Amino acid sequence: MVDSLLLGVEGIKKTILYGGSSEIPKFITGSKVTFHFRTMLCNDDRTVLDDSKKVGVPMEVVIGNMFKLDVWETLLKSMRIGEVAEFWCDIIHTGLYPMVAKSLRRIAEGKDPVDWHIHTCGMANMFAFHTLGYEDLDELHKEPQPLIFVLELLKVQQPNEYHRESWAMNDEERLKAVPVLHGHGNKLYKQGRFEEATNKYKEAIICIKNVQSKEKAWEAPWLKLEKVANTLTLNYCQCLLRMQEFYEVIEHTSDIINQHPGVMKAFYLRGKAHIEVWNEAEARADFQRVLDLDPSMKKLVKKELAVLNMRMEEKREEDREKYKEQIQALGNTIQETVEQAPTDQETALKETPEKDKLLKNTLNEETVKQNVPEENDPVGKTIEQETLEKESLEQEIAKNKNPVVATPVQNEILKNTNLEQETLKNEAPENGTLGNEPPKQEHLENESPEQETIGGETPENE
Q: Which ranges does the UniProt record give for the TPR repeats (predicted)?
């Protein structure tokens, strides 16, 4: 069934998508309403901004609890259990939606919905634009526009039917809940149940901050609530110390010190956290500040400084061991490199003798080939044989004094002899010059050995 109608409120149009059961339930102050919602832009694509069904967790509001987007209370009061309806809402009803959506998204991401780290005065906050951390919400914040809400009512619980958490309380109820939560936290801390204690302290802090946000900063009511909030925060930090969340302790105590530099316990807890993370200089400075603010803490500070000295000695010993291991690892790497280098050299040396041996054998073979005369090769004769043949030939010539047909060997010997004689004459200046020497008879290589003679040539006497 689809109905389209106008509610008795300006700028709202309702369309029923699915009818609910029974009558409209009773909505009174303190009633907790559980429902799913989907938010869309009024464009052609009907762009979805948020959808609780995708997150998997329905939305809860308490009627009369000053919920920022009070138009949702108006819409829900017109619905039955199980009903699904679409509401078109004009800009006058949607201006605060980006802020509400930011908190809902942070909760879905497991983050704190309240950003405690923004501290600005009223004028600065009025003119400054702080990003919401989501681009689509920033655009909607700068340029508000009508939105479409699709709501599905799941259940309505009366005040006596559920346990009221801090977010569902009004300011008076929150202020009454703070000391109760504080006492529960202290009891859990003494029992060593630190994580449960932190939850109690955190819930009490949220109650105080919600009430404090409605007071004027730094005036008496605000300062009174600030003192309570600081006490709860320091108790919260003591639990974090036991849970070894040291950097979170440093962060929270530093926030208190920046706002209230005279809070001694903040310096003390921050000094203890610095000890655990080996920030020696920072720890000593914090404990000195503790003594400046409260000299009666001297004995306790002395004890903490002894712990600091012990922790720093442990740190130095740990560093020595770490450096020793690093040096040893470096030495092992160098040794492995050195051991690997000779292996390569040995491989090269093993290959070198084999190459040398092969080269030597090759040279020996070439030498043997050169020294062994070939058959019928006159050049292969030794020097002694050539000398004897030379002397024998000279004697025969001198004895017969007749031209003799020279053999190729004889012809070669005489040719060499003539060359030696000419060389000796050229080297002896007193015997004549090169210009007075008669031209020698040249023998062509193509001439037949049988046609060559040594007639007319007289060998030089030795």
A: 264-297
d(CA 267, CA 261): 9
- Residue 285's pLDDT is 97
User: Domains of the chain, with CATH numbers?
Assistant: 3-110+135-162 (3.10.50.40), 171-314 (1.25.40.10)
Alpha helices in 277-382 (DSSP H): 280-293, 298-371
DSSP letter at 202 equals: H
Angle of helix 264-276 relative to helix 280-293, nearest 10 degrees? 160
What pLDDT, in 10s, does the model give residues 395-416? 665 555 444 445 555 566 566 6
How far apart CA 34 and CA 362 sit, in angstroms, is 102
CA angle 59, 32, 60 (to 5 degrees): 10
Beta strands 3-6 and 59-62, pairing class: unpaired
Could you tell me the two tokens for 82? 């199980």
C-alpha torsion sign, points 239, 240, 246, 251: negative
| Per-chain mean pLDDT for the chain | 79
Q: In a 10 Å sphere around its CB, with 0-12 CB exposed, 13-18 middle and 19+ buried, how is residue 175 labelled?
A: middle
pTM, to two decimals: 0.50
What is the 3-state composition of the chain as percent helix, strand, coil, each rounded to the nearest 5?
60, 10, 30
Query: Helices (H) and strands (E) in the chain — how many of each?
Result: 15, 7
105-123 pLDDT, tens digit per residue, is 888 877 655 554 444 444 3
- Consecutive H or E run containing 4: strand 3-6
314 φ/ψ angles, rounded to the nearest 5 degrees: -60, -40
Structure tokens at 394: 């000279």
Contact 431, 439 (CB under 8 A): no
